[in-house]
Design goal:
The chain is an alpha+beta fold. It is built from three helices and eleven strands, in the order βαββββαββαββββ. It has one domain (about 1-175): Electron Transport, Fmn-binding Protein, Chain A (Pnp Oxidase, Chain A), CATH 2.30.110.10. Strands 1, 2, 3, 4, 5, 6, 7, 10 and 11 form a nine-stranded antiparallel β-sheet that branches. A two-stranded antiparallel ribbon has the order 8-9. It is globular, with a radius of gyration of 17 Å.
């Protein structure tokens, strides 16, 4: 991993990736009243066919050093990822703002899909595996997710940038 301190102009220290991941491992709830300003929203940016960005709010989980999210294959983000898996995900915690860049892989392992469904259910979204064993279903999801089935994607970080929002401050970019 290569780390670049982006705040040397202000004599601020480089941030430690292990501190970022420890905070992510502790979880970022999307329930109202749990984050700033009122909850933690993850924003996913995919690439439209014309090369322009498409940004949308999503429910993401940080598990085993990756972000995981779900969407329907026929949504704009689902179609964009099928054509070009490059994407970025951004989230704000109390301690930092974070953007992770990489490629999103469609998850086709039934055990992994079931594990993620259980994690989402434990966080308040009643997701369950559908009859195929490869996608999720539930009584509801975000309107931008489209109709079920919802497929699970894993975003493996290729690069990340964090800006500390508490003292002593700092900003760092990592390449993995």
């Amino acid at each position: 991993m290569e780390a670049t301190n982006l705040a040397t102009l202000y004599d601020l220290p480089a941030l430690d990736w292990s501190g970022i991941t420890a905070r992510l491992d502790a979880g970022l709830s999307q329930a109202p009243g749990t984050g700033g300003p009122d909850r933690h929203t993850s924003w996913l940016v995919t690439i439209n066919p014309d090369g322009s960005p498409h940004a949308t709010g999503i429910g993401a989980l940080w598990v085993d050093g990756c972000f995981w999210f779900e969407t329907g294959r026929d949504t704009r983000k689902g179609r964009n990822l099928a054509r070009d898996p490059r994407c970025a995900l951004s989230v704000a915690a109390r301690e930092f703002d974070l953007t992770v860049e990489g490629e999103a892989d469609l998850v086709t392992d039934p055990g992994t899909v079931a594990d993620l469904a259980a994690r989402w259910a434990a966080n308040g979204w009643p997701a369950r595996v559908d009859d195929t064993g490869l996608a999720l279903t539930a009584e509801f999801s975000a309107p931008s997710a489209g109709s079920p089935p919802w497929h699970v994607y894993r975003l493996r970080p290729r690069a990340a940038t964090a800006l500390a929002t508490v003292d002593p401050g700092g900003a760092t970019r990592w390449r993995f």
